[in-house]
Amino acid sequence: MSQSISNQYLNELGEQFGTPLYIYHGEKIREQWLKLKQAFSGNNTVFFYACKALTNINILKYIRSLGANIDCSSIYEGRLALHAGFAPNQILYTSNGISFSEIEEAKNLGLIINIDSLSNLKKFGQKFGSSYPVGVRLRPNIMAGGNLKISTGHDKSKFGIPVTQIDQVLEIVRQYGLLVHDLHIHTGSEIKDAHIFVKGIEVLFDIVPQFNDLKFIDLGGGFKVSYKQGDIETDISLLASEVGKAFASHPNPGGRPLQVWFEPGKFLVSESGYFLTTVNVVKETPGACFVSVDSGFNHLIRPMFYDAYHHIDNISNPEGPFRKYTVVGNICETDTFAWDREINEVREEDHLVFRNAGAYGFEMSSNFNSRLRPAEVLVLDGRPQLIRKRETFQDLLRNQLEVL
Predict the structure, then answer these.
(1) Does the predicted model carry a pTM greater than 0.70?
(2) What is the pLDDT of residue 295?
(3) Which alpha helices (H) appear in 129-286, and where do they start and end?
(4) Using CB atoms within 10 A of its CB, is residue 300 exposed (0-12), middle (13-18) or buried (19+)?
(5) pLDDT tens across 264-299, in order?
(6) Over the chain, what is the mean pLDDT?
(7) How far apart are CA 132 and CA 181, in angstroms?
(8) Cβ-defined contacts of 7-16 (< 8 Å, 24+)
(9) CA distances (Å), origin 301, targets 19, 51, 123, 271
(10) Which of 291, 311, 348, 377 lies 20 to 30 Å from 327 when distance is taken between CA atoms?
């Protein structure tokens, strides 16, 4: 049975902890994890949680307790992973146009490293040669994903080394004796069609025979989740079946079966998250009826940045008649969450909940307009626990140095 938190309980949490408030349901994260594990149970597959989706240290610890590894996009995420108890060999660090000093630190910490540029690959070879294994992130030149801003594998994307430059990669590998243990691709986020991953596999299979030390093939993440009724999700069972068929018949020149890696982020945490707000103002105008809540894109930027849809419910008046509202924030910018959205009749001080807010919600928040970031609560085994305090005015001054 799908795990969810009742509207009544969400209201109670709003009264207890105040709003705006991020709430995460631990059992839903577990449900998503088990869905992955069960689908791929017959495959030689390892999952790395793409923690850029949500890095609260308690979420990292909980996901580690489920048995996942972790994927990091910065050295600081890597440090958080170590702090959360992940072993270095469970931490995948995929660089993206970063200083070579970050790669050096990742090596010194013992992390698994993917390199995404010829420049840094050469520097790695010059400094470490064959003394430390490395992975190479390739750009497969495949267009995929729900939005151009989250498509990372096409031929104009900054991510990875283009597959057309594979000869240059191989020359660096030969020159410095690099031990390339994995090849990595990531085509984008919100990929509906499981066959997009198969296309990526086909690109890699043309390259695999040229690398004699391969142990892993990393297909990235980007599994689609449902944001509204009728949304098509990635068919995880079909994906597992197709991946299994593809790898069962493919020989590895290194003589060992290739392990498959995936990096689910949003898939694990998105549906676990609820963003709870309070209505400040209901403003009737000739063009629209505006509902202004105690938040803005300083707390949830996805609708403005990605044109992302979040289902919004009035949990204070769930039986009220439906009316059309334009839901907006309270900051000094256009921060519209939803245009002409049908919601049960809204009154000032009602609680509105934004669903599917576990991924890239708090994680992309800011102090724009010098507003404070919200608190976070984890509900686990029926018990709510505060896992991040609401910011205070002193937090705005914490790292500023008053010299005048």
Answers:
(1) yes
(2) 98
(3) 166-176, 195-205, 236-248, 266-269
(4) buried
(5) 999 999 999 999 999 999 999 999 999 999 999 999
(6) 91
(7) 10
(8) 7/313, 7/315, 7/318, 7/353, 8/315, 9/379, 10/274, 10/276, 10/315, 10/351, 10/353, 11/315, 11/316, 11/351, 13/276, 13/377, 13/379, 13/384, 14/276, 14/278, 14/351, 16/384
(9) 17, 18, 37, 17
(10) 377
CB 193 within 8 A of CB 148: no
Q: Please tell me the distance from the alpha carbon of residue 47 to that of residue 263, in angstroms, as a whole number.
A: 6
**For the chain, how far is it from start to end, CA to CA, in angstroms?**
60
Long-range contacts of residues 320-326, Cβ cutoff 8 Å, at least 24 apart: 320/344, 320/345, 320/346, 321/345, 323/289, 324/288, 324/289, 325/288, 325/289, 325/290, 325/291, 326/288, 326/289, 326/290, 326/291
Give tens-digit pLDDT for 295-346.
Answer: 999 999 999 998 999 999 999 999 999 999 999 999 998 899 999 999 999 9
Range 154-173 burial, b when 16+ CB lie within 10 A, else e: beebebbbbbeebeebeebb
Per annotation, catalytic residue among 51, 72, 289, 332: 332
> Tokens 């707390």 — which residue?
299
Residue type, 4: S
Between CA 372 and CA 368 the distance in angstroms is 8
> What is the token pair recorded at 386?
């505060």
> Does 143 have pLDDT greater than 70?
no
Residue pair 258/247 in contact by the 8 Å Cβ criterion = yes
Strands 45-50 and 69-72: parallel
Rounded to whole angstroms, the Cα distance separating 207 from 402 reads 56
Are the C-beta atoms of residues 189 and 222 closer than 8 Å to each other?
Answer: yes
**Is 332 in the active site?**
yes
Q: Which two tokens stand for residue 390?
A: 């609401």
What is the amino acid identity at position 19?
Answer: T
Strand partners, 403: none
C-alpha radius of gyration, the chain, whole number: 23
Q: Which token pair is 358? A: 């576990």
Distance (Å, whole) CA 22 – CA 275: 5
Domains present along the chain, CATH in parentheses? 26-269 (3.20.20.10), 270-392 (2.40.37.10)
What is residue 194's predicted lDDT score, i.e. its pLDDT? 73
Question: Do the Cβ atoms of 151 and 144 come closer than 8 Å?
Answer: yes
Asked if 258 and 215 count as a contact pair (C-beta separation under 8 A), the reply is: yes
